[in-house]
């Protein structure tokens, strides 16, 4: 081969534009393990005869299922060669001038293989060169790409939602070709089979669940083209589109919203993407090594270099277009947010969180003090977009750093961000030096950009909320909500109960059947005497020890054998009514307040929060009468008003919210049950041959008794104590009878 031709090929492959084109082709490789000769020819616009000729020459080496006769399969390494060959042929090099070692030549020049392949020399040279970018520079490059990835996904998502009226059972896509087709068919529908001829395209695919998939495709194609139809983005009454945008929808979908205002809005929204088409390969290449997880701490710890937010402010200025003289129609764009969202409305200080390049403010530093005459303070508490076509000095005195702002007047738009579901997160403020600079189409576009900014702010807040309590996660991995960390959980109740049962099981096994029976009879006699003095033969009631009395209980793990095991279950009455009227958070805060009051009322006990408003108390070696006294005391002590918060403090709030409500007539119902040592041993022996776990089966029976008691209390109307009745015969192998205790002193 002529050395001059080889040097020319080498020089061509070293061009950054060549790398971008070949990398675009190689995106096809990332999802394909092997392809047939027909597919390979279609992917790169070759004929099958050309591929066979190059194979005979030694330029290609496809896999064969059988030597010389099997079907040809082209792996990613061969597809990579075809991508290089296609680019060289497009550049004017004849196929015969392409060297046989073109893949090795490609890797030796520096670009890393898309598939991680290449020889050792290339890995030591090219791979190292690609990884030698300084870390701080790499982060800056990734920040820039993140802005465009975010904006592109939001722009294409909103465009599809505007254009496609019914996506509940279907899907759709919007396709932006990098280069407009030159076949004179820009305004005509295209066959789905012809999409690959459009070349590199940015695609937004909206699935059934309204999730958007954004990707850059070198030669878009369908596996089943007949399922789709492709049409240009044409408004009603138009005959020629303003850009090469294409809509891809299922063949049976006909409900498209192509009204002129909608199509015009979509075109303006997509214009910045076409303007940066030369950087698509950089911004949208599938390079997961440069993935960034954005999260910002607002309003504390503000990062004034937030590339995405500041970039969106610049994009808004660019979307406004330019004057005939080449100047921006809109001069400045700012995102202002309350420094303390919990402050009273008239005392909120606005801080500039992000701004465009020409803004007189500095992101993260400029503060604007309250003034009700300023348009952005009004917008913060207003459910409307505020437009001032003729701006007065009093409207925006916070921008007085601009002398020309008030010299020739101006116009401005202030849009509240995120006010549909609560107080506004902030205000998007756009200012123009000329009067009446915002048309109705401009207002639509700014509203849409306001939604994109709102989505980003909510994303930041959600990620900050999710990152709270990481230190507590390590200390107590079972506690998901830190406000309940001072209570024991249901997991700990199960562990404690099964530990007690396991000790009994071990003792009964060591003692032997005869000893166990003798000991059981003796224990039964002792407990019978204790119960006979504790329970009256008439209607059961309990002694009132006084609602304010502090009860000192025996700890669960005290020394000595287990004689009796008492469990008190407690649940809040009318929970569904509380949730319907005040919300789930009110019930959660009420549950926390009741649990704290139980802990103040009882000393040295083990309190387990099970779920919702339900608690368990596990008591060892106390009589049934004493357990009933404790339950009645708790019922009276907890029947009182409670003031609970209705709002949860956000990570953006400097002070907790002051929105609270007083819940009157809060009551609880309680269930009391007691198990003698002999009864527990009997249950353990009954389920000794259980196919699952003896301890788990016995524990499940005990919990079932507690559920039964609380359900009976709910049927009785709540505010009561339901207790096991030891004088009634069990109605089955383990069916306990429960009765309602009479309230002491009529309480």
Automatic annotation (TrEMBL):
On whether Metal-binding is a keyword of this UniProt record, the answer is no
Query: InterPro entries, from UniProt?
Result: DNA-bd_dom_put_sf (IPR009061), GGDEF_dom (IPR000160), MerR-type_HTH_dom (IPR000551), MerR_fam (IPR047057), Nucleotide_cyclase (IPR029787), Rev_trsase/Diguanyl_cyclase (IPR043128)
Annotated spans, Disordered: 522-542
Q: Ranges for the HTH merR-type domain?
A: 34-92
Origin: domain of life: Bacteria
Location of the GGDEF domain: 563-726
| Listed transmembrane segments | none
Which keywords label this protein?
DNA-binding
Give one GO term, molecular function aspect.
DNA binding
Keyword field contains DNA-binding: yes
Q: Which Gene3D superfamilies match?
A: 1.10.1660.10, 3.30.70.270
PANTHER family found in the cross-reference section: MERR FAMILY REGULATORY PROTEIN, REDOX-CYCLING DRUG-SENSING TRANSCRIPTIONAL ACTIVATOR SOXR
What protein does this entry describe?
HTH merR-type domain-containing protein
Q: Write down the species.
A: Thermogemmatispora aurantia
């Amino acid at each position: 081969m002529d050395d001059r031709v080889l040097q020319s090929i080498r020089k061509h492959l070293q061009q950054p534009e060549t790398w971008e084109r070949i990398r675009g082709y190689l995106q096809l490789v990332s999802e394909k393990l092997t392809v047939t000769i027909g597919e390979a020819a279609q992917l790169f616009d070759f004929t099958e005869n050309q591929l066979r000729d190059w194979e005979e020459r030694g330029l290609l080496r496809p896999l064969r299922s059988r030597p010389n006769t099997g079907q040809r399969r082209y792996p990613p390494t061969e597809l990579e060669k075809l991508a290089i060959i296609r680019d060289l042929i497009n550049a004017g090099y004849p196929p015969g001038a392409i060297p046989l070692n073109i893949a090795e030549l490609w890797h030796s020049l520096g670009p890393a293989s898309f598939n991680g392949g290449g020889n050792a020399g290339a890995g030591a040279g090219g791979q190292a060169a690609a990884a030698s970018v300084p870390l701080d520079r790499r982060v800056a490059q990734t920040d820039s790409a993140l802005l465009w990835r975010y904006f592109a996904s939001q722009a294409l998502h909103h465009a599809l939602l505007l254009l496609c009226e019914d996506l509940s059972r279907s899907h759709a896509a919007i396709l932006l070709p990098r280069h407009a087709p030159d076949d004179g068919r820009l305004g005509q529908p295209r066959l789905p089979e012809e999409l690959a001829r459009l070349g590199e395209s940015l695609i937004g695919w909206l699935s059934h669940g309204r999730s958007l998939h954004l990707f850059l495709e070198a030669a878009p194609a369908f596996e089943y083209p007949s399922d789709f139809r492709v049409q240009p983005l044409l408004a009603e009454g138009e005959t020629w589109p303003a850009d090469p945008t294409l809509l891809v929808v299922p063949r049976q979908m006909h409900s498209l919203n192509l009204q002129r205002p909608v199509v015009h809005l979509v075109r303006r929204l997509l214009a910045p993407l076409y303007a940066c088409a030369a950087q698509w390969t950089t911004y949208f290449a599938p390079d997961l090594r440069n993935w960034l997880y954005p999260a910002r701490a607002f309003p504390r710890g503000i990062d004034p270099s937030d590339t995405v937010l500041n970039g969106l402010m610049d994009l808004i200025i660019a979307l406004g277009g330019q004057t005939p003289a080449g100047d921006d129609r809109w001069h400045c764009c700012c995102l202002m947010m309350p420094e303390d969202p919990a402050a009273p409305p008239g005392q909120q200080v606005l801080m500039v969180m992000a701004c465009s390049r020409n803004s007189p403010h500095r992101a993260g530093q400029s503060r604007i003090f309250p003034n009700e005459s300023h348009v952005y303070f009004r917008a913060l508490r207003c459910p409307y977009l505020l437009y001032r076509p003729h701006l007065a000095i009093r409207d925006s005195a916070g921008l007085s750093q601009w002398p020309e702002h008030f010299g020739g007047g101006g116009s401005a738009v202030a849009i509240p961000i995120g006010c549909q579901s609560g107080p506004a997160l902030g205000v998007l403020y756009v200012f123009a030096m000329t009067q009446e600079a915002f048309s109705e189409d401009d207002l639509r576009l700014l509203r849409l950009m306001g939604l994109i900014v709102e989505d980003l702010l909510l994303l930041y807040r959600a990620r900050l909320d999710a990152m709270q309590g990481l230190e507590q996660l390590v200390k107590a991995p079972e506690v998901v909500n830190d406000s309940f960390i001072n209570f024991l959980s249901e997991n700990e109740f199960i562990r404690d109960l099964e530990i007690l049962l396991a000790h009994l099981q071990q003792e009964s096994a060591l003692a032997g059947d005869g000893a166990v029976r003798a000991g059981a009879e003796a224990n039964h006699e002792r407990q019978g005497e204790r119960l006979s003095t504790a329970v009256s033969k008439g209607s059961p009631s309990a002694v009132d020890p006084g609602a304010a009395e502090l009860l000192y209980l025996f700890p669960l793990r005290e020394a000595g054998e287990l004689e009796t095991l008492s469990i008190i279950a407690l649940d809040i009455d009318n929970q569904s009514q509380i949730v319907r009227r005040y919300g789930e958070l009110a019930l959660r805060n009420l549950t926390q307040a009741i649990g704290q009051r139980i802990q103040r009322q009882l000393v040295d006990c083990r309190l387990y929060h099970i779920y919702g408003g339900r608690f368990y108390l596990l008591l060892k070696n106390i009589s049934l009468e004493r357990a009933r006294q404790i339950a009645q005391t708790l019922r009276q002590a907890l029947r009182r008003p409670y003031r609970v918060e209705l709002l949860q403090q956000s990570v953006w709030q400097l002070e907790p919210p002051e929105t609270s409500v007083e819940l009157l007539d809060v009551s609880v119902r309680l269930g009391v049950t007691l198990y003698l040592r002999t009864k527990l041993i009997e249950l353990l022996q009954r389920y000794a041959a259980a196919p699952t776990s003896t301890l788990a089966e016995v524990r499940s029976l005990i919990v079932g008794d507690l559920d039964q008691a609380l359900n009976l209390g709910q049927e009785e109307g709540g505010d009561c104590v339901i207790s096991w009745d030891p004088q009634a015969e069990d109605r089955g192998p383990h069916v306990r009878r429960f009765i309602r205790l009479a309230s002491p002193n009529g309480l």
